[in-house]
Description:
This protein has a domain at 1-120. The protein is 65% helix and 1% strand.
Amino acid sequence: MDIVYKNKKLERLLIFTNLAVTVVVIAATLLKLGFYKRFLSDNQLYSILIAAAFFFIAEKLVRFFNARSKKDYLIFCWFEFIFIILFVLLCYTASPVWALGVYLLLQIITKVCRTMVNLAASGKSPALTFVGSFIVIILTGSVLLMLPRSYKTEQMTFTDALFTATSATCVTGLTVKDIGTDFSVVGQTVILVLIQLGGLGIVIFGAVFSLLFGQALNVRQSVAMQDLLSAQTVNKIAHIIAFIFITVVVIEGLGALILYNMWDSCAPLPGHIHSKWFCSIFHSVSTFCNAGLSLFSDSFTGFKTDWRIYSVICPMIIIGGLGFGVLFNLVNVLVDKIRFLLNRFRPYEKRHLKIPVRISLQTKIVLTVTLVLVVCGTAGILTIQNNTGNHKIELGDAFFQSVAARTAGFNTIEIKSLSAPTKIVLMLLMFIGGSPGGTAGGIKTVTFVVIVMAVYATIRKRNEVEIFKRCVPLVMVGKALTVILLFTVLFFTSAFLLTITERHSDFETSAIVFETASALGTVGLSCGITSSLTTAGKIIIIITMLLGRLGALTLLAALTFNITPARFNYPTESLAVG
């Protein structure tokens, strides 16, 4: 819904003033939470925040009287009354300080989310907005991690802060600092927020909160979300976004609840774990977003005997890597099946007849390939390692690493102790990665299958690529080839540059190549060389992680948005290949 205002100049003035006050609120909050020594006292900071809160309330009143339709404005901003009521309740039940903080936080969230959705629908490329949002989040996170209260070490360089912020936002898991011991609770909270924002994307978050606050997306915003979510139709965008929100809350909430008692199996807990609840929430979010970041220095090595590692952590990694489109389709099929069973108990004349919801081709491919990769990966790691390496592993370890290698980045065994052939198997899994539309990286399972079936079609001398008795459009094959080619070029370029920057170190070439594959696939597994990289090497890994998270097609869409397709074709001529 778009609100029409009578005085355009007044509305523009309010927009700029809103931006200025938002910046002031953020700056005051950073002074309060991020520094031990401040040039402003607590009373002065509270005065600034109180003035900002009054401005936000007054701004709504001015816009109400400036709106042409008072009814439309009240419908559009109904949640502002909820914020004010919550503010008053917290003043009486908790404290004015808490009430002020919650109210301003909600105001900042709504403004940022609305801005991101509007930018995505502004007529520019949604992919460009997506890329820009990641860069802004990473830079913002780097600044926050450099605040004195965010870390415990003597010094936090900008390169290390940028590396950590990029790894968290790109849900990679590679670290140059120990998340548990080198960062304070403030820093760990920043990293947790970066993981959640990076896993789903700030633009998607903006759409989620817009719908949560009852603001229906207009046509341009729906089209932008359709592009970012790779949805088939515009009319299902609101349902998909609502589904994403519910899925994230339910899965991460249940994960944190079940993981709460798991930490007791490692008694006593390290001193840097201040709260079991925070530890549970952090690892639940990191698991579902396939981030691979842990508060424990040895990841899950100390918990390898706990049943929740395999029955909770692994399923959450797999679900997060399936993609929300696949989960949405599976839930719709399940609901339709339940509705069909209930419908059979009704009288025939009252039954609702409708076309049943079918499992899409995308869902079939994703589920099949995921199962094959997990089983074959487990068998390959177990067999190869126990026959070629000095360090023997068990079935549970092989299963966990087969699941985690496809972009989660956790480990229950020391990666550097694995044999070279086993590392190659892990690199293959990292190269393929998860599925489109999820939190995973790599070339994606669907891309892998399309190329394999294209080769199979060539061998069988078929003109069409066929998967599950369906023909894949030729343009999809071209996109799959583009993704693999660009991914391969990025991989070899990054590995080549790292061999140059790290030439004075004693790193093995296999370790450098493994590090590159882990960064590009946004996995997070390492042979232990990450923290010892040179500054140039860290920058290369930072760029590689960002490119791996954004994906080849997203980058191409952002860079080629203004290119007009050619309206003519040249004559066809055959070539000899192979």
